[in-house]
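Input record (Table S2, row 298):
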Amino acid sequence: MTDPASGLYFGRVALIGIGLIGSSLARVLKRDRLAGHIAVCARTHATLDAAAALGIADSTTTDPRQAVTDADLVVLCTPLGAYGAIAQAMAAGLKPGCIVTDVGSVKSCVIADVGPHLPDGVHFVPAHPVAGTEHSGPQSGFAELFEGRYCVLTPPSGTDETAIDTVTRLWRQAGMIVERMAATHHDRVLAITSHLPHLIAYTIVGTATDLEDHLKLEVIKFSAGGFRDFTRIASSDPVMWRDIFLSNRDAVLEMLQRFNEDLTALQRAIRWGEGQALEGRFARTREIRRGVLAAKQA
Ligand code: NAP
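Output record (NAP complex):
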């Protein structure tokens, strides 16, 4: 049955990876009856069994090629470091006209790692739904995850417009606002809005963990003072974030360099008691929060 509102329907969808993002998308596909069959691929039987028990997989396999056979839509939802090997393994199973897309948090590397493996006649539309939580695994997903958030498509030039339109409609159906961008631009924007904040959170929580024992106890006790928010971000999946930093090396290092310079300027202002400089900086950043609230992205 085609969804009457969107006119969107796929005979067979293959989801490679069924963690937070893959399982949330599977829930949308099920809720809106957008797929005749959802084939799910993961590394472990424990994950596949969990997906089947949740009712979000019609068939399961650890073999990417088997999952994509006869699929109209393939969505890569694994950590970025696995993409190249998966693309290679599934390539021979892809049927002509099939759309391959993904949800990875970095985009230039996806085009480099996946693109060369795809046969002629298969359409490749890289995508990044900018929505998430610190949780992982199929049980942590929920269909509403994507609502009101942005999804960035980074199709290489020459990509079939009908395929781009289909992926656009898929994410709109999930409640997202869809934008198109060059992959390199996406990677610079996300380096500052997502990757650097995670790096800072991982650093500050690590610094606190290395403190002497008696101080460490107080850190937990008084965490509501701001530290708590960092611990939430720093509890995100270690493999996923390892891959994001390694895949977006240049952009992250560029933003980190700028951050270090600004941090040094603040350090100097504190050392020399330059209250006006501090206040000016903090007043300016307060405006950014107002902008985020106004854009309903808080
Ligand atoms: P997740 O919850 O950790 O799930 C990862 C899934 O990938 C699991 O089902 C895992 O299966 C599977 N997997 C790992 N290696 C595989 C392989 N070699 N072959 C087949 N399946 C494999 O991860 P997630 O949070 O959904 O993130 C997935 C992707 O979404 C990442 O690329 C990430 O950059 C992107 N993303 C994440 C967020 C977020 O906030 N989490 C937001 C936007 C985009 P097993 O359990 O069997 O290993």
